[in-house]
Write a structure and sequence with these properties.
Strand order of the largest sheet: 1-2-3-4-5-6-7-8
Number of domains: 2
Radius of gyration: 35 Å
Helix content: 10-25%
CATH class of the largest domain: Mainly Beta
CATH architecture of the largest domain: Beta Barrel
Low-confidence stretches: 29-52
Number of strands: 8
Order of helices and strands: HHHEEEEEEEE
Strand content: over 45%
Length: 213
């Protein structure tokens, strides 16, 4: 065989051997796209990370104003209080911190009693499958407040200093309103006849403004 034909034959045989080896290698290690890590755009990852807060009906920056009534009991004596409340909310981890103002008025026997307290609350959304209707709508909270309570009666005034601990829940059907239920214990300090402790509960309705989406 002439030298030129012998060279071409050897090159063709080498190419066939290389192609066969490549085919066997590919069949032994098939390529699967699922083996490669998926690339997620940064904005998609950030959006997914934020879905835990997207359903919250109460958001940082919101204002709450409302009113309601409370029943207090002290040494077997029960009386009612009308209250006005306002709060501003800020982010606190997974939940919110609320800075609250409370104004109250009650009529006890022949005395009129006015209350003014400043407080702080910590709340987080609660979701229990089969119990709560939707995520971000139920907000249990704990709170602490203190201020001044002034009692007026004919010919006499009495200034007291309440310190109140509270445990409650805020239930929201939408982003603009809420129903609140709260249990509380108050220690009255500076009372002329001696300090005492009273317990009670509050039920009220509030409106929520400037609540970001």
């Amino acid at each position: 065989m002439p030298p030129g034909r012998r060279t071409r034959a050897l090159a063709l045989a080498g190419a066939l051997v290389f192609a066969g080896a490549a085919a066997r290698l590919a069949s032994a290690h098939p390529h699967d796209a699922s083996d490669e890590p998926a690339l997620v755009p940064a904005d998609s990852a950030a959006a997914e990370a934020d879905t835990t807060r997207r359903s919250d009906k109460l958001r940082p920056g919101a204002w709450e104003f409302g009113g309601g009534g409370s029943i207090s009991n002290s040494s077997g004596f029960t009386y009612g209080i009308f209250e006005l409340r306002g709060a501003k909310f800020a982010r606190a981890g997974r939940g919110l911190v609320g800075f609250e103002t409370l104004l109250g008025y009650s009529r006890v026997s022949d005395s009129s009693v006015g209350d003014a307290q400043l407080g702080i609350t910590l709340q987080r959304p609660l979701f229990i499958e089969g119990l709560t209707r939707e995520r971000g709508a139920v907000w249990p909270y704990v709170g602490l407040a203190s201020g001044v309570s002034q009692s007026w009666e004919p010919g006499h005034e009495d200034t007291r200093f309440p310190v109140t601990g509270a445990l409650g829940v805020r239930m929201m059907s939408g982003r603009s309103s809420a129903v609140r239920v709260e249990a509380r214990i108050t220690r009255m300090l500076g009372v002329e006849t001696g300090d005492y402790t009273q317990s009670g509960y509050f039920v009220g309705y509030s409106w929520v403004f400037n609540n970001p989406r």
